[in-house]
Amino acid sequence: MSDQEPTPQPALSPPPPAAPVATATATHPPHDTGFKETLISLLISFVMALVFRSYVIEAFVIPTGSMAPTLLGQHMLYRSAQTGYDWTVNPWWYFNRDLPFPVQGAGQRGNTPPPIVTDPMTFSGHNLKYSQNYQDQHAAKRKFRGHPEGGSPKPIRAGDRILVQKYLYEIFEPERFDVFVFKNPALATQNYIKRLIGLPNEQVWLVDGDVFARPVTFNADDEPLPAADWQIQRKPRRAQSALWRPLFSTEYTPLDPARDGIDWFIDPWIAPGFDHPTRTSLRTERPGATITWDNTNWPITGWVPYNESAITQNRTGFRLADLRMRAAVTPDTDVLTCTATIASHQHEFRARIEPGGASLQMRPDDQDAPWQTLASHTGPLLRAARSTPVVFEHVDQALSLIIDGKVILTADYDWSPDQRLLNATGRDTDSFFPGRSRQTNDLLKQGTYKFANPRVRWDFEGSPVTLHRVGLDHDIYYQPSHQHGRARPGLATHPARPATMHADQFFALGDNSVNSADSRAWHTIDPEYAKQMFGITMEDDNMSRGQYEKAIADTAGLIPRNMVLGKAFFVYFPAPHSLGGRIPVPDTGRIRFIR
Fold first, then answer.
1. How many other CB atoms are there within 10 angstroms of residue 588's CB atom?
2. Which of 58, 117, 442, 445 is least surrounded, with the fewest CB atoms within 10 Å of its CB?
3. H or E stretch covering 291
4. Does the CA dihedral 51-56-57-63 come out positive or negative?
5. Which of 22-26, 53-57, 97-101 is the most confident on average?
6. Secondary structure of residue 250 in the 3-state scheme
7. Is the pLDDT of residue 260 over 90?
């Protein structure tokens, strides 16, 4: 018996006459009813899309290269016929930014040279030593680079289009190293995208390219009081994996390393005792062999090809030791011992893989000093006749050993900012404070970091071995800078100018640290924001520009919470390819989550 109320039944009536036999035909609603339903559905979808865009997710386009190559603004895409390597270059503008191509312009000394590029996998700082005259070198660069001489410039491609979660930070607190979108504090009508570095109620100091932070409180006079010691801020693996920049890898060895009798390509790996069974592999029959990086011809710096210009094409930049060594190792027997070593900052760091296990070690840069084991693993890792990817990372004062895609060992060491500067420069922190006898910021001089010049080495013992994809990558380097238009150091780039965040303030940097307008350089804030935060305006308070900027000096460069628009999380339409120069073709291979 059912608990439901019975359905009413119609009254009894004579049965209807039998219907004539006919082909069944579906009935359709009247035309006007279908049109109304379609229109209503479209309106509902449109309203839902507007609500979704306004309150959940919004699309943005990346205009410039301040986050390159993580996220691309307008750029040119190149592919080397010699190496097969793809890379992007910031557009070169000479006199007209409205044209779809970089255009050659005229100057006091005649026409500027036409746009030319350098394949990052073949260019080295001194591979033109056969030529003594600069003009000869310049001509030779264009001829011996893996590119045909006088190649035409590439069309300019649009920037990546991304999705931003607008109100995620209303539920969850922002996390360091998030990529986020915000209103430019200096001009609130502009939207900016950067990486979040500094959080509320803390101080940030960029030391030798890495991020150090400490929590602070504020006294009655609003002066910051340290609540703990400085600590290095290590990037989570999701972000770190997106920030490695390749210096070279053997799979990009050029097809023709010599041309017209000239060795125009210099291999960065110095490998005595190794042969090349193929163009991209290395093999040694010796029981003991070593591979070292050629620091002279291939300096290890934070330079990225995106910033290459048409006139200055050198690999300048701060030397850095946050590196990733990698190789696919195939031993002939099970008794191979493989060691990856990075020496810098007056110390050596290494991953040692032996037949019975592996370890991470460090020691002072002294051959007589004993090795300190930071972490160890027991068990075989390399097997005979099997190609095993080996990765050794030294980044953010931490070491990692990754075998066959799995993190086997991790360890870290905790140097303070003072120790880090001392080990990089040989000088204590107090010596960098300006005084009567020191009016310049030495931290801006690359030569100051004389002990940061790294040395990289692979050692193999006990078995013949074959290597593939022998590569070296560098991490992002947050370099020191001047404040824009000012002689004083950029915010957070000097011990005298740490960035200090109050509640609901953030500090942000671009991934393209060499060429990014970010919290280091901003020296003013939007007048409406200044009025909102401080109740001051130049006009109402009859202030000079200098007085106005002094009043906002501690806030310029910081981003208030109410100007944060959301977290960038997905590249849904990367810069498209072009079919015939007119039809955009989505680059679906670069659709990805933002890390």
1. 10
2. 445
3. strand 288-293
4. positive
5. 53-57
6. helix
7. no
Phi, psi (degrees; rounded to nearest 5) at 590? -105, 5
Angle, alpha carbons 112-115-119 (nearest 5°): 140
Tell me how far apart the alpha carbons of residues 224 and 198 are, in angstroms, rounded to a whole number.
15
Measured distance CA(268)–CA(315) in Å, rounded:
14
Torsion on CA atoms 556, 558, 560, 564, rounded to nearest 10:
120
Rounded Cα gap, residues 448 and 111, in angstroms: 37
Peptide bond connecting 69 to the previous residue in cis, omega within 30 degrees of 0: yes
What angle is formed at CA 235 by the lines to CA 231 and CA 239, rounded to 5 degrees? 165
Q: Average pLDDT of 320-349?
A: 97
Distance CA 247, CA 433 (A): 34
Backbone φ and ψ for 69, nearest 5 degrees, come out as -90, 15
pLDDT in tens, 122-164: 865 433 333 333 344 444 444 444 444 444 567 788 899 999 9
The three-class DSSP label of residue 436 is: coil
Helix (H) or strand (E) holding 32: helix 31-55
Phi, psi dihedrals of residue 418, rounded to the nearest 5°: -65, -45
Query: In this structure, what DSSP letter does residue 405 have?
Result: T
Give the dihedral of Cα atoms 285, 290, 293, 297; nearest 10 deg: -70
Contacts 24+ apart (CB under 8 A), 232-241: 232/396, 232/397, 232/414, 232/415, 233/176, 233/197, 233/396, 234/395, 234/396, 234/397, 234/398, 234/412, 235/177, 235/395, 235/396, 236/177, 238/595, 239/177, 239/195, 239/595, 240/395, 240/396, 240/475, 241/595
**Surface-to-core class of residue 581, CB atoms within 10 Å of its CB (0-12 exposed, 13-18 middle, 19+ buried):** exposed
SS (H, E, C) 471-534: EEEECCCECCCECCCCCCECCCCCCCCCEEECCCEEEEECCCHHHCCCCCCCCCCCHHHHHHHH
